[in-house]
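From the pipeline queue, job 12 of 40. The input is one protein chain; the requested action is below.

Action: predict structure.
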Amino acid sequence: MDCLLVADNIIVAAKGSFIDCLINQNHKIISIEDSPDANNSVCDLAISNNNEYFATLTSDKNLTIYRLPSFDRVNLFILPRSASKIRFGAENSHIFVADKTGDVLFYDILKNDSGVKLLGHLSFLLNVLQSQDGNYLISADRDEKIRVSCYPNTYNIQTYCLGHKEYVNHIEFLPHNNRYLLSASGDGTIKCWDYVVGHCTCTINTKNDLSDPRLQEEFKKIMDEDGIEVESLPIVHFTTSKLNENTSLVAISIYSCNNLLIYTIQTGDQFQCQYKLTGTLQLKGFFNCIDLFNTALYVFNGSNNILTKYDITNSDNNIAINESQTIEMFSNTKIDVKIDLEQNIKILFKRKFDNVQEYQERKKNRLIKKP
């Protein structure tokens, strides 16, 4: 899948084996085509909290660290297994890797070592995140679980945040109040957690806000062909940003839906959260990456390589979204890449097997064969 990342004076988009870094209005194209793997592509991007380092994760299990803004390579790690997510830690000098066998690995970006395993799940890991105070390491997996581990002693499990019905692919702290954790799932819901105690303070069911119910029925038919039972359209992209001292913005894209859903989440004094659907944004197709930064929404359309910036304004609790800028990415760069998003989504859902009938048939046959 394409990737998009926005920070102070930095916009990074990845498509196939190319990365376009826009820094202070200047483009720098990074190519990873020299890999021996002909199908090598960028899987994830990360920027350190102090904007000093930039990291890329590729499908050939390479984790590359660059220094900003020069893009001089600082380090290259060969991961032992394929990974799904990378995140810089609170101290900016280390990076966490969530791999597809269920392990979280730790790398010091300034040292040449093989990494340290911190914890493991019995499932495909999809995300990892360290708290800003450095006391907790949060990991999310394909089996609907969010684990909150103490750090650095990650063998001590603080709690689990349980409640999703499908894989959890996104976790982020609520920007205006990092006491809370936001999660998004293949079950089409967003949950807000008081994560230290594992309490869910509110749930947003995006199924209630979809304008075209036919999309869900079509998705069910497609998944039924592979023996997968689904109830809602999965959330594909998720991003959040602070609006003011009491409110954060959340923007999501849903599989096969051309509308971005934009919510506000507000916290109060009684450790409760309230949410509101504040707007929708019609896009040309759903093959878009999104990222919120401050009060601007960035949308990268992988079909035409156009990045669009939308300014978000708040007046008397009325949210307005207005297009303000378009930028051509990957100019003069030929990229031939085909993304099978349907297949990428399918592998995250678990197939339901009913072996009771098969057992009953075997039992019946054994009884018949008895003399």
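Job complete. Residues 356-369 form the longest helix (14 residues).
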